[in-house]
């Protein structure tokens, strides 16, 4: 699904839709020029402007050229399904309406056919391959609208880079790594047993597979894992094995309406493509938390009656660990109420320009009949939400209802659930004990088990995923910090407490993925969040993005200056050359 939604973003970036073999009429304000598709191909491949494009030279920038060059090589067996996901997405009609403002001569049927045909070509799906596939002799294109879209995406990218830099510098700590006789990231002493159970929920007609990891000496809370959309119960397999090796029982749930089988089984018949269909059934926003509550009920029975599992399932003390849509699942169970009234207001005004996949996905819930929904389960006493999808699902302040301890993991380069709207703003709302891990440069799938990531989720244009060996240090940190967080509910809390700190997190930093850890956002970041509080998750105007970007750059530059000043003062004091009287005022008294 993320692949399909992100492909929609790719399609918002054309410089000029055109025709397969004939003329493109480009309009930019008062300028109008008829060009050939070959002119655009020449510009894309060489950077040279043919004579017919020279009038538009000032706006045909290198960024526009890079956009024309970008292509997506799809698995031939998956291409039709990915394109179908896009066209059947909750905002499919809005997508086509937006493209119609750029190329008003195109009908939705022509666009659908062109994208499908282009996706099957040997050279992959690109803007130029879509142009070649349009069966029309002449096409008029509003070049000004197309360039404006590219500019908006570039500004959003600049904003993301600036936010990464701000969090990197603002959360940098001088706290040393804890001195301890053990490392919670190291494998535990227990042998891990693993078994698959299938639990039938007859009341809801759902068959729920669960993977159980346990050891002979079981202790502490029960750990429940919830995967994201299009994934499965093995997405966090490495983490389940680690926690079980330390004596914790782990149960990883597979949600049948939103797992990899649900993604692969989406129907792509023409009837579905002609209406605003849901890739994700609205009912999944209710069924996922209810899956967890049902599984806890079943495990409680097994704990009482089964000689194999007796004493293994502490269902009255549960830590829910969820990724993406699984993060939503955990937060809902921890006490956040689903606010569908607020969500409908947001989604009714949503335009696909600059919209993240998370914003699209959350709007699938608007078909639910309720105005609100309380899905909380008092047995969930902790929550770990990795790259969670939150957005407007819980309303403007719904997450403030969560009082249980929470650990949020966020990647600054997450193009699926962007850190501003999906993690930072929600983290600021939480009322109970809370921690934030900011993975500088981290992407949506960086936390996943590299051997168990659905390949179709990685085929996202313009949103490269950093995973595998590049994220090995991050996964090692997550082993240690998650175990330490869970053990805050046990008699071992003091022993593991020092590992819930910035020093421990930073000890796992790499050049590609610096790690930052905090219990509270810096005041500068909170001010910036307030600036954007009415814009989270929604597409923003160019002016709004510029204001946000400039604000972030100002914060970052101020932080850098303060650090330089502190370093200079420390050096001067250490050298005994001067006594600092007032700083940052430049008043020094020589000894």
UniProtKB/TrEMBL annotation:
Keywords: Hydrolase, Lipid degradation, Lipid metabolism. It holds the Pfam family Abhydrolase_6. SUPFAM superfamilies: alpha/beta-Hydrolases (SSF53474). The keyword Hydrolase applies. GO terms for molecular function: 1-alkyl-2-acetylglycerophosphocholine esterase activity. Residues 20-142 form the DUF1400 domain. Residues 223-450 form the AB hydrolase-1 domain. One of its GO terms (biological process) is lipid catabolic process. InterPro entries: AB_hydrolase_1, AB_hydrolase_fold, DUF1400. It comes from the Bacteria. This is Alpha/beta hydrolase. It comes from Vasconcelosia minhoensis LEGE 07310.
